[in-house]
Fold M20/M25/M40 family metallo-hydrolase.
Amino acid sequence: MSRIASVLERIDADLPQSLDRLFSLLRIPSISTDPAHAADCRRAAEWLVEDLKTIGFVASVRDTPGHPMVVAHHEGPAGSPHLLFYGHYDVQPVDPLSLWHDDPFDPKIKTIEGGHEVITGRGSSDDKGQLMLFVEACRAWKAVHGGLPARITLLFEGEEESGSPSLKPFLEANAAELKADFAMVCDTGMWDRETPAICVGLRGLVGQEITIRAANRDLHSGEFGGAAANPNRVLAKILGDLHDETGRVTIPDFYDGVEETPTQILQSWTALGETAEDFLGPIGLSVPSGEQGRTVQELTWARPTAEINGMWGGYTGAGFKTVIPAEAHAKISFRLVHKQNPDAIRDNFQQFVRDRLPADCSVEFHPHGGSPAIQLSYDSPFLVKAQGALSDEWPKTAVTIAMGGSIPIVGDFQTYLGMESLLVGFALSDDRIHSPNEKYDLQSFHKGTRSWARILDAVSGASA
Amino acid sequence: MSRIASVLERIDADLPQSLDRLFSLLRIPSISTDPAHAADCRRAAEWLVEDLKTIGFVASVRDTPGHPMVVAHHEGPAGSPHLLFYGHYDVQPVDPLSLWHDDPFDPKIKTIEGGHEVITGRGSSDDKGQLMLFVEACRAWKAVHGGLPARITLLFEGEEESGSPSLKPFLEANAAELKADFAMVCDTGMWDRETPAICVGLRGLVGQEITIRAANRDLHSGEFGGAAANPNRVLAKILGDLHDETGRVTIPDFYDGVEETPTQILQSWTALGETAEDFLGPIGLSVPSGEQGRTVQELTWARPTAEINGMWGGYTGAGFKTVIPAEAHAKISFRLVHKQNPDAIRDNFQQFVRDRLPADCSVEFHPHGGSPAIQLSYDSPFLVKAQGALSDEWPKTAVTIAMGGSIPIVGDFQTYLGMESLLVGFALSDDRIHSPNEKYDLQSFHKGTRSWARILDAVSGASA
């Protein structure tokens, strides 16, 4: 029997106990954004440390100005690579609680439409369920072989759902301890229930809040309308100018650093077989709204955007108030791709706004973070090995895809630890992460654990 | 002593008690647009009825489908005219409360810049303070002469600040009871602190709320941004299109029925001596923002407008949320002049929105009232008498002006009761009506009460 076959057998046999452990972690309401749950966050970190010690990790709760980190180390054979695995133990709030069919912090196994068995509860998919895959893979390996096939460091964060304020300082302060040959991040999804995916592209993000001001107070639109500048009008005009008729962003130099995606990559995305109707149908839409002549995969994975995430000004309550407000506001975000420069985007947007500001109006800008896009190699040795390992476990060959969202940790690992990441995860598009009734497929948990064992086997080089 | 001199003496002597009564009414937070304050609206109506009974009015609270009306009657001498006085006891919301220096519903006398004593509080100027002028004038007259110089009907509305939904049906149903020789409406302002004004022109108003919808739920802007329609973007584009570069409204046929103001009238407005700097300076502005090449008087009194009174969509709280919202909203109002047709304006605006609606988006419209502009005679006998009475009370001769606001009741009195209105009021341009820190000058209250007594004297014909 190969060294991996016995580990997989052990994972299968230990599944009930693995679920018990996951359920214990899921029962801790570690909502990081809510100060009332600070003690729960610490409890989750402490639970993880205790569990990791049973596997033989040297594990500790590491304080930060916010919620603590969990760091754990396990030695590997001489000459084996050093791997850093990242996950987060904090979860999103659960409101509105009334929409949950089951207690978000009392996990259950249920059978849903299609006959799929799922684990219910907040964090089941994002990210406690995914984090425990790797822990369980290590546990099985250790039980069978008495050690691990590589030197392994675990980093579990408790602030991922609340902006990760402590992460960069922690990486900087502990760079020597955390630097590995490469990182593995389990916070992404499968392509579909049969097809695992490795994510090699992530869009960057620039957030910008703007406030337009005119008169020194709210005005009566009868008394002053026609003579006084209206910040709502000014803001609408500026935001309405952000895109041209073809859906392109009109900010000067916005597309500097954007590259055309190679035809071969575009073809591989088309080969995934997902149409615009497949992608947009479930959310009640049918026509891609972005730049014309591009597929939904290209639009969401490889093209930049400018979106108005929030805007408000004047009277927004019930009924009507004929007011010309003193100010109007918007929260705007830009998704970046390839080599777009977050600082240049922000500067050019601010100039774009100032260029459109009429007499008597002023503007104030509030930045909300900025990170460049991430483009990982399609053919690094680690990726190729992981792709083979995943394809061995699942019915279909693992695909390489990109993602429209941002996972800042990947950029932080590059910046602070000089380390590339392998992004593999087993979430499904119907997992309802961040929403009521989050779930994680039992198959994702079971075969996900097996997948990480196979990846460990493949990337640690030796084969017995 | 003339019959008016003794009344004026009584008004002077009774001022402290008059203020006590006004303050009692101001303490009732009768915000008509907010359902949470429905009981307060009724309480204000009941307070007025009780107070009017003490003067000898036959007064009652009259139910409507919305907030109640107050109707009161007092007989006059045989052969005297029948006068209907209108005011409203409801007030605007007070948000944002944090900008008020004093509790909006705990009125005080304060001295402001320039040494003027003012009454603070929501409704002090619009319109409880102005409504009570006439009540106090009647009270003094009754106290001195044992009766009133004319037959008087009072009509106090509780829905003026929320679109007056019950007013027209009420006027129709009670036309025989309410029809008088002419109406007097006290909901307007002075030209300046020394110069009383009679208003002969009022802009009309069309209110329209719109909701733009796209996806069937809020979306993550990373996952769907670039492919899914964003209602905030659609709304901004539509609202940004409402005006051209010269400030003209771009809705088709919007200017149908708008007449050029006669040169003679424009000259009389110029003769008032108010510059753009005078008008805009106090609110922190300097340049008229409307159609180019017109004075601020023409822009606000004789030109139509389209204003965004409120708009909102997506995440508007602290921090940032990368959401593409399912819907976005705006409250838009049009000020109308001359013969513009409210129904046509509404229809053309709705078509304007539909013409700009991209695929996958839908729009829903909610009307919020509509009334045409009003043009009254410059030289009716009542107006001439009132002008003389006002000029007797104040340092400067009363002027005839137009107004940018809308007082739909004036059109309703024409339509349903076949009755012209005399519009006299004592608000000042720095009263901050509809805004935080609303106030009413003590002089407006005191000399306003005296003014109405003088007008009553002048228009009721006899002079003793």
The domain at 3-199+377-459 of chain A is CATH 3.40.630.10 (Aminopeptidase).
